[in-house]
Write a structure and sequence with these properties.
Two copies of one chain form a homodimer. In chain A, the strands form three sheets. Chain A has a six-stranded mixed sheet with strand order 1-9-14-13-10-11, sandwiched between helices. A six-stranded mixed sheet of chain A has the order 3-2-8-6-4-5, sandwiched between helices. Chain A is built from ten helices and 14 strands. In chain A, helix 2 packs across helix 3 and helix 6 packs parallel to helix 7. Chain A starts with a strand and ends with a strand. Helix content of chain A is 35%, strand content 24%. The first copy, chain A, has two domains: 161 residues, Peroxisomal Thiolase, Chain A, domain 1 (3-Layer(aba) Sandwich), CATH 3.40.47.40; 154 residues, Peroxisomal Thiolase, Chain A, domain 1, CATH 3.40.47.40. Chains A and B meet through helix 3, strand 5, helix 4 and helix 10 of A and helix 3, strand 5, helix 4 and helix 10 of B.
Chain lengths: 329, 329
């Protein structure tokens, strides 16, 4: 069984997104709960800023939900997921560190849903985030280096998002099922083309999801991928067409939604924060307003480290999909 | 509720450990399923070797269990947990990446138990591992540098372990409850004294565990910590004594068990692999032989990255505890 059914339909009772200045200037700017214009968020380093984004998102979501959760699932892109771990010093709740690269928002949401669905906890938080400057420093070169960006590159989103799930039935927005990703490697080695690395994994997850749930793309009000960007989105459409699924007009990539073309982000946004702030802003707000009733949210991750790239390894991808829908009871 | 009860008592139906040459020469040498004397495991780099340890442990445990699991939970110490992720290319199963530093074996076991307990999957694998040379390269200096080790340091275990959990009742060894750790920071900044960084978190988790489950140390046949080492073990005993719990003679640290004193490992073993190979060898074998009926297995992690240390941050710790016991039905 590669698609998991949450029979008790854990409810989404709160969400919060915090994003940076560049993100606030994009098409989704109005949908974020909070904007932090200072890229240091009042701290000494960009790493401290990233950590503060996590604390802000998690505390914000908890406040919106108005309940005290039992457990937090969180992850980020930094080595040893230190943004999540260090943020948890301030949160003080039991914590499970999750790593799914840029698929982390979906993966943490699935895990939080699993624990709530099982009745192991009453309530849990799922969170993910990223920061442009910390990702550049770690994966590529520090900003001071003034590196040139090839046109296939993507722009790491500065932002974090958090979702609170609860066993209580006070909300109609539920997490109903999920398809956890397999690691898929098509042998691509271009670190500046993440979309191409992740698209095969996205196709694998979506194909399994549609087959297991006996659904078609048309059964969803919208399908979101996390941060495939322009190249990855096109590759995913092609790969799925070969397998008999037409993603059609209701498929969107968060990485393409989040910035405007004139913002010079090449193929679009990326990073854990990309899908995290889009989910915990634009997408869940649409549920609240009644525009969406059933959405397939799939975040994608490229499973590389600078060491694996230096050692000549290819870049495998993973994609985790979760269904969010309005339920009646 | 900070201790989770697994009412359906997921069963441990298979386990496997693979360890390196140095580990094979220690007191637990006979308990490992397989020894790999070549530190490169036939690969070009130590990183490839670490990945192969994961594949070996996971495939080994699956073979012992004789069932095809639905899902794998795994994590390691390398940046972006690439050992787990890359190993999953060969395993081909859906995969949740877990990061709990050296507490990962307990954390992956808890998550696998949660999914099986919930009926979300029929069977799941939990895995963790580490390699001395990859950890030295990443956290300290490459071996070629010939760095001197301060006496408070610990020796990263080369090895990986995997456990298969199942909803079927064919085994009497079950995972019955777990206490997930909070991030605890006592402000220690010495990267060569991991035991001191982790002991406060271990004390926090054990105290909560004993209180929530209304148990005492004497209620367990044995209590294991993951890799506190000599300093951490003493600190944990002291911290718990202050809180009214005497760990007594049945408390052991995997980091102290795994090497003999003449092996020159300073304060003892460490790394994800330390508790992983001890659990999936020595500890579970004792259950099989009927020597153990109820064990508290707590793995501890230090949540640092070289970047956080360079930036002057302290080193928070986390500890995850899980109860393994023989059940009657």
């Amino acid at each position: 069984m590669s698609t998991i059914i949450f029979n008790h339909q854990p409810r989404i009772v709160g969400w919060y997104s915090v994003a940076g200045k560049k993100e606030s200037q994009g098409p989704l700017g109005e949908t974020f709960s909070r904007i932090v214009e200072d890229e240091y968020f009042g701290g000494k380093t960009h790493e401290v800023a990233e950590r503060r984004l996590f604390v802000t998102a998690i505390q914000g979501a908890i406040q919106v939900a108005g309940i005290q959760p039992d457990l937090v699932f969180a992850g980020d892109l930094l080595n040893q997921i230190v943004s999540s771990s260090f943020a948890m010093r301030d949160i003080g709740l039991p914590y499970v560190g999750i790593y799914g690269a840029c698929s982390t928002m979906a993966l943490s949401l699935i895990n939080a849903a699993a624990y709530v669905d099982a009745g192991l906890v009453q309530s849990a938080v799922a969170a993910a985030g990223s920061h442009f400057a910390t990702a550049e420093r770690q994966y590529r070169t520090p900003l001071e280096f003034g590196n040139q960006r090839p046109p296939s590159s993507q722009w790491t989103v500065t932002g974090a998002g958090a979702t609170v799930l609860s066993a209580s039935k006070e909300s109609k927005i539920a997490v109903t099922c999920a398809t956890i990703g397999r690691v898929v490697d098509f042998g691509i080695k271009d670190v500046n083309n993440m979309g191409a690395c992740m698209a095969p994994a996205a196709a694998d997850t979506l194909e399994r999801h549609f087959a297991n749930t006996h659904t078609q793309p048309a059964d969803y009000d919208a399908i979101f991928s996390g941060d495939l960007g322009q190249i990855g989105e096109e590759a995913l459409r092609d790969l799925l067409k070969e397998r008999g699924y037409d993603l059609g007009q209701k498929y969107y990539d968060c990485g393409k939604l989040i910035y405007a073309e004139e913002q010079k982000v090449d193929m679009g946004g990326s990073g854990c924060g990309c899908s995290a702030v889009t989910l915990n802003g634009f997408i869940l707000d649409k549920f609240k307003r009644g525009d969406y009733h059933k959405v397939l949210f799939m975040a994608t991750g490229a499973l590389l480290s600078p060491t694996t790239c230096f050692q000549g390894e290819s870049i495998p991808g993973v994609a985790n999909a979760v269904v969010i829908e309005e339920v009646t009871e």
